[in-house]
Specification:
globular, TIM Barrel, alpha/beta, 282 residues, 16% strand, 10 helices
Amino acid sequence: MLATLKEVCELAKSKNAAVGSFNTPNTESLWAVIDAAEKLNVPVIIAHAQCHDYAAPLDKIAPLMVAAAKNAKVPVCVHLDHGEDFDYCKRAIEHGFTSVMIDYSTLSYEENVKGTAEVTKYAHERGVEVEAELGALPAREDGSGETASDPSALYTKPSLVPDFLERTGVDALAIAFGTAHGIYKSTPVLNLDIIDAVKKQTDIPLVMHGGSGISHEVYRDVIRRGIDKINYYTYMSYAGYAAAKALTGEKAEGYYHDLAMDAEKAMYENVLETLKVFSGID
């Protein structure tokens, strides 16, 4: 069933859990995520990142995502992840996404505030919720970018949170405390006290980006401290790639759909185990 960002976050929070948000740039990942959520009977977020438009154009993948959410047996939010400009957010809203993230985190603080407020006003007038980011991750959503020499320079400043929320009106806030997108090139330096400090400033859902590679113990700790939504993609996608590669190693020739089926199964198993951690299911 199609749900809002607030609805899925509240459902997870009521069980002392976090909702998982998974990028689904193809039908195999889309089915893997929803099937795993239905297996565990937990809410979930299916997301499309603007940087994946080359692989899954929004106009093609959006109708599939919205239809899949409506037909799901569990609450499913359809979310735009890391929207890079106002027009792309508008397009996602027109397609029926129930929430959008506008990511101006690499701009100056004032530019982030101004641009985010513009998107929020437009989205709220159409009943759509908005996530924004304060602070920044060293690597972008597509894995590009170098690790910062001083990661703490990118951390969210809790003192800015009240002003940012008041001036933008966003419904969820992604905060930076040392995680990064993609495969880690070095051990991340996390400052989990930032979560505690931000949580004292607001009751809106807090979001963790760059969750791949984080230990189960750290996941449980960030959820306990107040993270309500966790973005996850890289390791799921790598699992699908590895499964397809293994099959080509076994068979020199074959059908493409066999590769796709093996990839989907591997992604499903990865998502299933990940959702168990996010949901506190043994």
